[in-house]
Amino acid sequence: xxxxxxxxxxxxxxxxxxxxxxxxxxxxxxxxxxxxxxxxxxxxxxxxxxxxxxxxxxxxxxxxxxxxxxxxxxxxxxxxxxxxxxxxxxxxxxxxxxxxxxxxxxxxxxxxxxxxxxxxxxxxxxxxxxxxxxxxxxxxxxxxxxxxxxxxxxxxxxxxxxxxxxxxxxxxxxxxxxxxxxxxxxxxxxxxxxxxxxxxxx
Length: 202
Prior knowledge:
By secondary structure, the chain is of the alpha/beta class. 31% of the residues lie in helices and 19% in strands. Helix 2 crosses helix 3 (60-69) and helix 5 packs across helix 6 (143-153).
């Protein structure tokens, strides 16, 4: 059976503005982050299908973003949390290694390996999408968690996502439960970061 998985990153947070590593630690949404969620919600409403279930990670920034997206009841799932960066959580972003060194670096500092992150995202999202009552699910998660899930299923992503995944970006997947095939269909990835006013201001 073909279903729709609408996978979204949370809105801008205080730690995003301060350029802090934000894995399993948390910080609140900024005013801009709340505006971003409203714009993403408007884009999702134009997809041509109705969201029937909502899920988010147990981090407050994801839960608060979800609250701005839909009035549907929802579930918080620990498996949707951001990559656990271990000792680096909450530290300045300049301490991050090059991307190709993330796996060994964070595992060596008490965090997760990349495959651990991919496995829990796959397990959690498969459990959600295999539910008989779920047809079109909105799931609010985090940048590295979403990116690693997406690249596992759709590694050749440069045409749809040429750069980074910005706050409140939305990825729409077709999820085929029959043969467990996940296909990236559409991407909404506006760059509102660094703006000092609402997106509507131009």
